[in-house]
Amino acid sequence: MQGDLPSTDAETAAARIASDATVLTSGFGSVGYPKAIPLALANSDRDLRLTLVSSGNVGDEIDVDLVESGAISRRFSYQSSSVARRATNRRDIAFSDRNASSIGDEVQYGGMVDPDVAIVEAVAVGEGWFVPSTSVGQVPAFVEAADELFIELNHQHPLGLQSVHDIYRPDSPPNRTPIPLTDPGGRIGTSYVQFAPEKLVGVVETDRADSTYTFRDPTDDDLAIAANLRSFLSDEMERSPVFDDAIHLQFGVGSLGNALMGELRALDFGDRDVVYYGELIQDGLLDMLDSGRLASASATSMALTADGQRRLFEDIERYAEDIVLRPADVANHPGLIDQFGVVGVNSAIEFDIYGNVNSTHIRGKRMVNGIGGSADYNRNALLSICALPSALDDGETSRVVPMTFHVDHTEHDIDVFVTEQGVADVRGCSPVERAERIIEHCAHPSFKSDLQSYLDDVKAQSNHIPHDVARAAEWYES
Fold first, then answer.
1. Among 106, 279, 350, 420, which one carries the catalytic annotation?
2. Per residue in 34-70, pLDDT tens?
3. Residue-range definition of the domain harbouring residue 330
4. Lower CB count within 10 Å: N or C terminus of the chain?
């Protein structure tokens, strides 16, 4: 901590926050979030009805302890624990799901909330500036929007993290100019977030680790999906001249995404540059960097396991040569995703035979986590790929359905579907042609004949997208 800054403790900071305050927090990918002040709020005996806004998923101190205390009445953007999920589905918390790229603008300019206080985590702080820790998210926008600011200075993280940050603030509409990023691994900003010094109410010193990710070992289905994806990308690189010199990849967070990254080390990219332009650095990307298969990685968060975080921290200077962390309104910016011709690979809960994708609600009604940045990449990527196993529960539950009753990504957003069964490239297809390809190449054998029977029957209709809604609903009743 540099300069004469107001120092305080977590309990004093928590006591200053109004019981019905709108609180903006750092955190994305379960890392880089404040820990001490949320715990103090959870442990207080006050009757709190907070509105909480985060730009991504946060850790247990917020998503378990603070939620269990009953302190949160309204929540924006993303939740990730089973505790928060239950509170959301019981509607104890009024939850609004938002796209990762736009929530900063919505907080600042869109009238979504009237922010009172921002609580952020940092590895260094001085007069009018701080260096974020393991994620950035929408922190710069949140700090600008909030009336007051608390900073948790976390000594658990190395100061070397300052070398990975590239903090750039887009101009305000209607005078917003294009973001001047021409190289995904380039830098256009500073290593710190600036703030009006009079906003800073207090600095709380902490020494508490993130709630890091735990990735399961790849399953046989994961490996089969990876092999199918690898084969498709190999053919696509040869087919399309846009990939002659380089390929820019993005993977969604989770065990499958991490497994896919690891398996792509076996793909022959030739002499092409392989670049990651996404929102999350996962362990699989560290493996690709270590093997020399990746030129650079640009994201907004380092969503690593405890082992991955240890690897990063122990060799931060070397990794900082190739890793850049940016604000989410840059990392997930639609124009940059389009500019770099990103190949986006994201998973989902299910998709239907016409290519509509449900990423967030089981059986169309029970929220899992949130949409995160998947819509940013699915809609704006040069090539959008949805990858997931064709069935769950040892083949008892199909993830390819006649009609999904919740749609996060429409049939206009996804180009290719990949399961362990195969690949359905649906570009240029009519709805019925999409259905035929998806059933043939992606459906699990236990459900393929039923899906085909459904399609054969509804094709008798004189409709562009034929459906039997009552019959489609029966897939959710079993």
1. 279
2. 999 999 999 999 999 999 999 999 999 999 999 999 9
3. 220-476
4. C
